[in-house]
Amino acid sequence: MSAISDIRRQYSRAGLDVADLTPEPFSLFEKWLQNAVDANLVDPTAMTIATVDETGQPSQRIVLLKDFSEKGFVFYTNTESKKASDLKQNAKISLHFPWHSLERQVKICGVALPLSSVEVAKYFMSRPKPSQLAAWASAQSRPVSSKQVLMEKFAQMKDKFSKGEVPLPSFWGGYLVVPHKIEFWQGGEDRLHDRFMYSKGSDGQWQTERLMP
């Protein structure tokens, strides 16, 4: 293997300037997300989410963004998972979208608020049935002795709910991430990247500033 310290490339696809910014960050995020979709990126809605446990230890994992608006960003998960356990004791969260081939990143800092049971049920019922069954079969984040045990549990759920709709598990929910900071990063030549931070003031208005790369 060659020295990983020598792995580098120029970023030259595009730039980001003040004239490209929108009054609030959600319109720009929507534009960038659509660009990622149009570019046929693999999993354009994939985002890394970071939480912190009771000891202060950060933890990260990748989930899919399922909705967003000026209210915030939505994802769903098992409410007994590691991330949900972290959020119960510390609702602060960070999201990160790495659109590498577009030489773009978006970082979001905010708090995660539980969605209502009505919102959760509406989304759960829209999922493909195998995904619904997998939610029932998996005690997310808990140890399992083998893949076979998981597959047997999945088969049991498939048989149990073979007829009719799959009910919403009591341990399955979602979160609305309400942001107070959103950073847009566009790669630049010679590592002179363009970075703009949107920060929400106490008056609810968004201010922007350019950051050094």
Automatic annotation (TrEMBL):
Its EC number is 1.4.3.5. GO terms for molecular function: pyridoxamine phosphate oxidase activity. Binds 1 FMN per subunit. The keyword Coiled coil does not apply. The keyword Glycosyltransferase does not apply. Residues 172-213 form the Pyridoxine 5'-phosphate oxidase dimerisation C-terminal domain. Pfam families: PNP_phzG_C, PNPOx_N. It catalyses: pyridoxamine 5'-phosphate + O2 + H2O = pyridoxal 5'-phosphate + H2O2 + NH4(+); pyridoxine 5'-phosphate + O2 = pyridoxal 5'-phosphate + H2O2. Pathway: Cofactor metabolism; pyridoxal 5'-phosphate salvage; pyridoxal 5'-phosphate from pyridoxamine 5'-phosphate: step 1/1; Cofactor metabolism; pyridoxal 5'-phosphate salvage; pyridoxal 5'-phosphate from pyridoxine 5'-phosphate: step 1/1. SUPFAM superfamilies: FMN-binding split barrel. Residues 35-157 form the Pyridoxamine 5'-phosphate oxidase N-terminal domain. FMN binds at residues 61-66, 76-77, 82-83, 105, 140-141, 185, 195. Substrate binds at residues 66, 123, 127, 131, 191-193. Transmembrane segments: none annotated. Its cofactor is FMN. Keywords: Flavoprotein, FMN, Oxidoreductase, Pyridoxine biosynthesis. It comes from the Bacteria. Catalyzes the oxidation of either pyridoxine 5'-phosphate (PNP) or pyridoxamine 5'-phosphate (PMP) into pyridoxal 5'-phosphate (PLP). Belongs to the pyridoxamine 5'-phosphate oxidase family. Homodimer. This is Pyridoxine/pyridoxamine 5'-phosphate oxidase.
